[in-house]
Amino acid sequence: MKNYYSVLNECAVKNQVLFAGSTFAHDFPINELMQDFDVDARVYNRSEKGAKLADARDFVMEQAEALEPSKIFLCFGDEDIKAEGFLAGEFSYEYKELVSDIKKKFPDCQIYILPVMADGAEEADNALKNICGDIAEFIPLSAEAKHDAGKIFRELKTFLHGRNVIFGQAWN
Known about the structure:
This protein is an alpha/beta fold. Helix content is 45%, strand content 11%. The longest helix is centred in the middle third of the chain and has 18 residues, at 88-105.
């Protein structure tokens, strides 16, 4: 997977959007949905199917260093929460470490954390909300959106725009 993304990153435009996560993010059709909506940013989906947050930290940093994004969307947890002995506190600590590493390397980068895209993730989501503060923004998704790619995209697209959003675009 890394070699594949390395080749793609050589052609990528810097200062755009990095979308990184595990299985849900890997399978999320963000580029197809962008074609249906008026979004001017380029989004590079660098997600790994089956990845757990602890194992993906170096990979995410490698992708961020290659792309030098202005925005990063992180969507981990759907694999982590399935693991036996999952602890929301440890998970949120690992997330905070990753976000802190990104901020140190790219202080002007906007970082957005998506909720864990799995049923029963309320405790993990609450822990993620608590770590955000000044270094990241948690994007809460409505309950009905979590199972509908189009609704998720509608809720995310205002964060994707690289410019100010015109009122009419907010509803498309």
